[in-house]
Design goal:
Elements: E1 10-11, H1 12-21, E2 29-33, E3 41-42, E4 46-47, E5 57-58, E6 62-65, E7 76-84, E8 98-101, E9 113-116, E10 120-123, E11 126-129, E12 139-140, E13 151-153, H2 161-169, E14 174-178, E15 182-188, E16 192-193, E17 204-205, H3 208-218, E18 222-229, H4 233-246, E19 249-253, H5 264-271, E20 273-277, E21 279-282, E22 288-292, E23 295-300, H6 304-322, E24 333-336, E25 348-357, E26 363-367, H7 377-381, E27 384-388, E28 399-404
Parallel strand pairs: 1-21, 7-8, 15-18, 15-19, 16-17, 19-23, 21-25
Antiparallel strand pairs: 2-14, 3-14, 4-13, 5-12, 6-8, 6-9, 7-11, 10-11, 20-22, 22-23, 24-28, 25-26, 25-27, 27-28
The protein binds adenosine monophosphate (AMP) and magnesium ion.
Length: 410
């Protein structure tokens, strides 16, 4: 039977729903210093116990004044009464005077605006201004960024540099984080050789190992790498048991198809439960999903593009749920296609694509000319996927669904 007509292919939406509903959060929490928090997932929402900033601060280098000391019209000249640098404490502003003030310094009691130094004329200790500023000008009020009691970070957020900076801004030294998901990986294929080694006849370099390392690192996972595994059922079973013993999730590449050298699916059936196999997607049809003991197992196909695509489509959701973040379908954009797609396929297709500008500087989405699942170059050229629905055809100018790769990792 032709693959496209095969009744047993599981539709993408069904497969994703089945996989995500079978996973739950691990929930192990530890408190780590801020410098170790990048990429980790926050285990509790964070509430501030302080205002940020704690005082009214000057936003400029200039002069703190009270607008009531200004003449109704014309030039105002006032004496200098104090100098306030960032980090110092201010005295109340002496009546009818100005204070020299610097960016980040506390605004003295009695002042209600700061005039930038470029708008002042200095003659010894006499400072003259042409115009009266608005009340509050160039002052960052206390609590301008954060107010005491505000929830500044939500449980389940992935910590980027800016979240870590925000936590530091309220004085936290550590954060409660979900411990990294431990992901066991191995790679099947007698044809595989490690980069740096001599490439013998019939061999290829193992690229999936390095793609997977990068993908898992970008999700903040702990990687347990069992390396290359030969194409025998016994070696595959042994690697699977080792990986499942140590990991929360096992992800492998290759050996899930229907050839005599493909042992991963059979080993899952023997050692645990095969829950899904053969999906209605392109690339990535032979993906196998199952469970061995308490560990979820995702056997990705061997083709390098299939590894990348199915990682985004299925492994990202699984890891996100294990990490305590849940999973929402990544945001996609309807965009004008810069290409035709004349051949319908019964599988949902995920084409490697990127945004480009047409001759009138309008955005459109273009696809890499070679969509073969062995052409890893397509994933480097592209920034995202065009999602083509089952049996859909397309002509240039029609709208298509574009999903940036980054949306799977946010
Ligand atoms: P398989 O799913 O094992 O039949 O492999 C499908 C294709 O992917 C074959 O052409 C393999 O040589 C290739 N392949 C499998 N594993 C890797 C790997 N780790 N790196 C690069 N290519 C691979
Ligand atoms: Mg193989």
């Amino acid at each position: 039977m032709n693959d496209c007509d095969s009744p047993e292919l599981i539709a993408y939406d069904d497969a994703l729903a089945q996989i995500t509903s079978s996973i739950s959060a691990l929930g192990r929490v530890s408190h780590l210093p801020l410098k170790q928090a990048l990429g980790a997932v926050l285990a509790e929402s964070i509430t501030s116990s302080i205002d940020v900033p704690g005082n009214d601060l000057s936003a400029m280098d200039g002069y703190a004044i009270n607008t009531e000391d200004f003449a109704v019209s014309g030039i105002t000249t006032l004496p200098l009464s104090q100098r306030i640098a960032a980090g110092s404490a201010a005295c109340p502003l002496a009546p009818a005077s100005v204070a020299r003030i610097f960016t980040g310094a506390p605004v003295p009691q009695g002042a209600n605006a700061v005039i930038m130094q470029e708008q002042a004329r200095v003659d010894g200790d006499s400072i003259s201004f042409d115009n009266c500023p608005a009340v509050g000008a160039n002052i960052r009020p206390a609590g301008n960024d954060i107010r005491r009691g505000d929830t500044i970070l939500q449980k389940g957020c992935r910590l980027r540099p800016q979240e870590i900076g925000l936590a530091a801004s309220i004085g936290l030294r550590t954060l409660p984080l979900f411990e990294p998901v431990k992901v066991g990986i191995f790679f099947t294929g007698d044809e595989l050789v490690e980069p740096g080694e001599v490439l013998g006849a019939g061999k290829i370099y193992d690229s999936n190992r390095y793609t997977l390392h990068g993908l898992l690192q970008s999700l903040g996972c702990e990687i347990i790498d069992l390396g290359l595994v030969g194409d025998t059922l016994e070696a595959t079973r042994q690697a699977m048991l080792d990986a499942c013993d140590q990991a929360d999730l096992v992800v492998t590449s290759g050996g899930v198809s229907v050839g005599e050298e493909d042992h991963v699916r059979i080993a899952i059936e023997q050692l645990g439960e095969l829950r899904l196999w053969r999906l209605g997607i392109k690339p990535g049809k032979p993906l196998a999903y199952g469970q061995i003991r308490d560990t979820a197992f995702i056997g990705l196909p061997g083709n390098p593009v299939s590894v990348f695509a199915t990682f985004c489509l299925f492994v990202c959701p699984v890891i996100s749920i294990l990490q305590g973040r849940g999973w929402k379908k990544p945001l996609s954009f309807p965009l004008r296609a810069g290409f035709d797609w004349p051949e319908p396929d019964s599988r949902r297709e995920f084409l490697r694509a990127r945004l480009e500008l047409d001759s009138s500087n309008e955005t459109l989405v273009q696809i890499f000319p070679n969509q073969d699942s062995g052409v890893l170059t397509s994933t480097v050229w592209a920034d995202g996927f065009v999602e083509i629905a089952e049996n859909q055809t397309l002509v240039t100018g029609e709208e298509v669904n574009y999903i940036p790769f980054a949306h799977f990792f946010s």
